[in-house]
Amino acid sequence: xxxxxxxxxxxxxxxxxxxxxxxxxEGYLAAASxxxxxxARVKAVIAPHAGYVxxxxxxxxxxxxxxxxxxxxxxxxxxxPAHRVALRGLGLPGSDVFATxxxxxxxxxxxxxxxxxxxxxxxxxxxxxxxHSLEVELPFLxxxxxxxxxxxLVVGEATGEEVAEVLEAVWGGPExxxxxxxxxxxxxxxxRARVVxxxxxxxxxxxxxxxxxxxxxxxxxIDGLTVAARRRGMRYGAFDFLEAA
Length: 245
Fold this sequence. Notes:
By secondary structure, the protein is an alpha/beta fold. It is 36% helix and 16% strand. It has one domain (4-236): LigB-like (Protocatechuate 4,5-dioxygenase, Chain B, 3-Layer(aba) Sandwich), CATH 3.40.830.10.
């Protein structure tokens, strides 16, 4: 029998009704499409994981960047922070399938076995069960992509080097893309948040690490991507709206 990780936050972070969910996600993607997806091939995106009422427009922009390559993308390496269960290192779900109201996404079993051989990776089903940071990205991927599998990893206490080692193990070619799930500041007054988040965004674009959790709740996964990107001579795209006064 398959081990299915059912949706934990459908009806809370995003609509539980499939038709409503699809329509909402398609709306966010359509609103982000003026100007189109970038001409350059995008290896990785950073997407938010708050409820869609807050994060949907930004998530739409992030995932639109993958739309032009949808036909060749077959695997998504998806990393997000563990919010509810503490763990050391990175956690695999121990599941064969992740389910959302839009259907099921198979887990990349071969890739999971590969990273499971690393000392900082272990199975942590309990950390995945209530976790929203990975789940909320899946409906966007299901709408944007064709057939794909996902390697879902929650990130607990880990260094950027440890996360980068995991990413390198499953880096792959154009068939593999990386999605880092992260919000930025929490609970700050609006004007202060704009300043702090703008500084954080500029640090990310400049490949500065470590961020840690203080500036972004997905700071540790971002640190790992930054380490890997620097090694490979990659760069982030700069988003003008983050520079707005």
